[in-house]
């Protein structure tokens, strides 16, 4: 995935949310976060970042006061690695973000899936998020139901909305312990 443009000063980029969510599970150093955000990493399979962008995202989070150094551990090649963890403000921002539905249908694949993976890692219940996200997409799907079949963009949006609804229904029908 690519680094997206920031739309407002207080908004974090998805890579920054990914770093914050990983570090909320347990303090770690940047190299360990970057490993989890590699394309084959547990979070990177949803949203991947290069090591350079991971360090940039971490620096942004520290600058904003969402992450702070909590200790050091020896590095493998000498020198110490700084262990980072979310501040109280960082944890509050993460919890708010994890429980807020995505605004746009196009963000379901990236943003919603990232929220679900990070929520699972952080033991955050997603039921309310899924219900609210389903309501939001239902409105979009209803507005697209009469789309002109000759309009490929309208058809794509309708089918995407229906696929997202099926995905959310599948998640909502799982036993409670699986959410």
Compact description:
By secondary structure, this protein is mainly alpha-helical. The chain is 54% helix and 8% strand. The protein has a two-stranded antiparallel ribbon.
Using the alpha-carbon principal axes, give the shape: elongated
Please state the average pLDDT score.
90
Report the CATH topology name of the domain at 1-87: Arc Repressor Mutant, subunit A
Task: Assign the CATH class of the domain at 1-87.
Answer: Mainly Alpha
Query: CATH architecture of the domain at 1-87, please?
Result: Orthogonal Bundle
Order of helices and strands: HHHEEHHHH
Strand content: 5-15%
* Separation of the first and last Cα atoms: 25 Å
Largest sheet: 2 strands, antiparallel
Could you give the count of β-strands?
A: 2
The whole-angstrom Rg is 18 Å
CATH homologous superfamily heading of the domain at 1-87: Winged helix-like DNA-binding domain superfamily/Winged helix DNA-binding domain
- Helix and strand content put the structural class at mainly alpha
> Unreliable runs, pLDDT <50, ≥5 residues?
none
What does this structure look like?
- By secondary structure, this protein is mainly alpha-helical.
- It has a domain at 1-87: Arc Repressor Mutant, subunit A (Orthogonal Bundle), CATH 1.10.10.
- The protein is 54% helix and 8% strand.
- A two-stranded antiparallel ribbon has the order 1-2.
- A hairpin with a 5-residue loop joins β1 (67-74) and β2.
- The radius of gyration is 18 Å and the shape is elongated.
- The mean pLDDT is 90.
């Amino acid at each position: 995935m690519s680094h997206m443009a920031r739309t407002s000063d207080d908004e974090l980029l998805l890579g920054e949310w990914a770093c914050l969510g990983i570090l909320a599970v347990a303090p770690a150093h940047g190299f360990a976060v970057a490993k989890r955000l590699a394309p084959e990493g547990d979070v990177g399979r949803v949203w991947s970042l290069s090591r350079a962008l991971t360090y940039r995202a971490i620096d942004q989070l520290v600058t904003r006061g969402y992450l702070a150094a909590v200790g050091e551990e020896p590095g493998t090649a000498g020198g110490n690695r700084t262990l980072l963890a979310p501040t109280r403000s960082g944890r509050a921002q993460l919890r708010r973000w994890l429980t807020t539905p995505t605004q746009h249908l196009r963000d379901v694949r990236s943003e919603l899936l990232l929220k679900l993976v990070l929520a699972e890692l952080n033991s955050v219940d997603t039921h309310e998020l899924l219900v609210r996200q389903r309501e939001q997409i239902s409105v979009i799907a209803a507005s697209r139901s009469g789309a002109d079949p000759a309009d490929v963009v309208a058809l794509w949006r309708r089918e995407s909305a229906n696929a997202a609804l099926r995905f959310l229904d599948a998640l909502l029908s799982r036993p409670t312990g699986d959410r």
